[in-house]
Design goal:
351 residues; alpha+beta; Hypothetical Oxidoreductase Yiak, Chain: A, domain 1; Ribosomal Protein S8, Chain: A, domain 1; seven-stranded mixed beta sheet; three-stranded antiparallel beta sheet; 36% helix; globular
Length: 351
């Protein structure tokens, strides 16, 4: 197959599922995680989808991730819960948290479910978009899977990309889905640049001398920068408190670099929230939101700018196109998957 030939989502899911199963993950769990990883690529979150397979396999092989995790509810009230991920693949714990949060929102108006002893779980959009599609408001956040940023004005690496995602239903074609890191760039974007042999833009990282760092291969020599300076730092700390400390999960110096350390339990912390507008007596939230969105899209763009778009715009149509036509994998990623197939003795056919 040529490097630019599309890969069917089903074939790619099958390959990822077999790769995980080969490391001892039960078939059903492997298929669940593989489906979410491919779903990340389908919705355009390529830095957090199948690209992460190498890291997941390394942690499974090294013993840092439990292949046969028994995800369970560790604590629960009417509107809250705490999931213990048993150090398994993070997608399993976050799926359980998302589903429980939605269930609680239907009965209590709100569901807030934390995760401890989790692992990297792909893009947070996977755990908030379903809320919006069900007419609910969603939110999720996570302590990053490695520390790449110091506290503002400091020099010790004590914070990660600490992402947050928020979703809301809309009467238009796409739900509102915001998924962002609290650093200027997510580390996954830098890792894809390394894979593709491309430089970083200025403003993503600085070296310990404060000078811009643009060689992604030298990322360990510098720091990621927070969005909005001290404001991004403050938001990152707030997420660490809610996703880490509140759940009894790692934060600060306790965070394990899940790429360089494949043997230690990471105790990654996350949370998922679902909120039902009906709990506030609002029966037309989606219509009211779409009215506001339409006003924003109609705002004349400034010179040199594209028309206004909302977070999530175009995602539904793009995802359906990828499901129909297949996924255009980056040649570097395709080669890496082939290398993984050789390394782990897997069938590398994707079609």
């Amino acid at each position: 197959m040529s490097d630019d030939a599309p890969v069917s989502a089903a074939a790619l899911r099958g390959f990822v599922s077999r790769a995980l199963a080969a490391q001892g993950v039960p078939e059903q769990d492997a298929d669940t995680v593989a489906g979410l990883m491919v779903e990340a690529d389908i919705f355009g979150y390529g830095t957090h989808g199948v690209f992460r397979l190498r890291q997941y396999l390394a942690r499974l092989k090294g013993g840092g991730c439990n292949p046969k995790a028994q995800v369970k509810i560790a604590h629960e009230t009417l509107a809250t819960g705490l999931i213990d991920g048993d150090n398994g693949l993070g997608h399993l714990a976050m799926t359980a948290a998302r589903d429980l949060a939605i269930e609680k929102a239907r009965t209590a108006g709100i569901g807030w479910v934390g995760v401890r002893r989790g692992n990297h779980a792909g893009p947070l959009a996977l755990y908030v978009r379903p809320q919006a599609e069900a007419g609910l408001i969603g939110m999720a956040a996570a302590v990053g899977s490695a520390n790449h940023m110091p506290p503002y004005g400091g020099s010790d690496l004590l914070l990660g990309t600490n992402p947050i995602a928020i979703s809301a239903p809309s009467a238009g074609g796409d739900p509102f889905v915001l998924d962002m890191a609290t650093t200027v760039a997510a580390m996954g974007k830098i890792k894809t640049l390394i894979q593709q042999g491309k430089p970083m833009p200025e403003g993503w990282m600085v070296g310990r001398d404060g000078a811009p760092l643009t060689d992604p291969n030298r990322k360990s020599e510098g720091f990621l920068l927070p969005i909005g300076g001290p404001k991004g730092f403050g938001l990152s700390v707030a997420i660490g408190l809610l996703a880490g400390v509140l759940n009894g999960a790692a934060f600060g110096s306790e965070v394990v670099d899940f790429t360089s350390d494949t043997t230690s339990e990471s105790n990654t912390g996350q949370f998922v929230m679902a909120l039902d507008p009906l709990a506030f007596g609002i029966t037309d939230f989606a219509e009211r939101a779409e009215k506001a969105f339409a006003e924003m899209r109609a705002s004349p763009p400034l010179p040199g700018f594209d028309p206004v778009r909302l977070p999530g715009d175009g995602k539904t149509a793009a995802a359906e196109a990828r499901r129909t036509r297949g996924l255009a994998l980056n040649p570097a990623l395709r080669r890496d998957l082939g290398a993984l197939a050789d390394e782990y003795g897997l069938d590398a056919s994707f079609a």
